[in-house]
Write a structure and sequence with these properties.
Radius of gyration: 19 Å
Shape: globular
Number of strands: 0
Strand content: under 5%
Largest sheet: none
Order of helices and strands: HHHHHHHHHH
């Protein structure tokens, strides 16, 4: 079994190799996480050049602060957390008033304007490029605090706990924001599908 295969199944071996500054361990981590970290940063910053900078800075932090990583969290979660913090720093330089913290939620949810049974839509329409484009636009239109939770949980497939850890939110706030993101996307996509279906 080669080292890449070992790293995939043995987190302790990977961490030991990273601490020993083994080049193929860093190559493995970069291969596994660079695209994911880019998607995370791009979803917050809406700027691919800035997102690339976040990815580079995240891996620099990995090298510089590896001795501070105690292994209590998953390495991937730690990298996501670094990328998230770097992205938030850049975002706040652009938008000082942005709120991403775990502030109290008022509990009110938007009432849907359009109610459509998605199961009645033809499969061809639901896999159409226009719908993919509409989904991308809907995700991009989410407010930052909802968008980041949705991307981590639904796009990257992290658990609710991991998402909460990365964003420094409580579990309840994470669930509320995820629910609101889904409602927003459903509403946005329903209107887009109605427009596409009427063409």
């Amino acid at each position: 079994m080669d080292s890449q295969s070992i790293y995939a199944y043995d987190a302790d071996a990977l961490l030991a190799a990273l601490r020993n500054r083994t080049p193929d361990a860093f190559a493995y981590v970069f291969e596994q996480y660079s695209d994911k970290l880019f998607r995370l940063a791009a979803s917050l910053l809406k700027d691919e050049v800035a997102a690339e900078g976040v990815v580079q800075d995240t891996f620099l932090r990995l090298i510089e602060r590896l001795d501070q990583f105690e292994g209590r969290a998953n390495l991937g979660t730690w990298l996501y957390r670094i990328a998230y913090n770097l992205s938030v720093d850049r975002l706040r330089k652009r938008k000082p008033d942005v709120v991403l913290a775990d502030e109290p939620e008022d509990g009110r949810l938007p009432a849907p304007v359009c109610l459509v049974d998605w199961q009645q839509w033809p499969e061809k329409l639901l896999t159409d490029n226009e719908v993919v484009y509409a989904l991308d636009n809907a995700i991009a239109a989410l407010p930052e605090k909802f968008r980041i939770v949705f991307v981590l949980r639904e796009v990257e497939g992290l658990s609710t706990q991991e998402t909460a850890d990365i964003t420094n939110l409580s579990i309840s706030a994470t669930k509320v924001r995820l629910h609101r993101a889904r409602l927003f996307l459903r509403e946005h996509l329903t209107q887009s599908l109605l427009a596409i279906g009427s063409e």
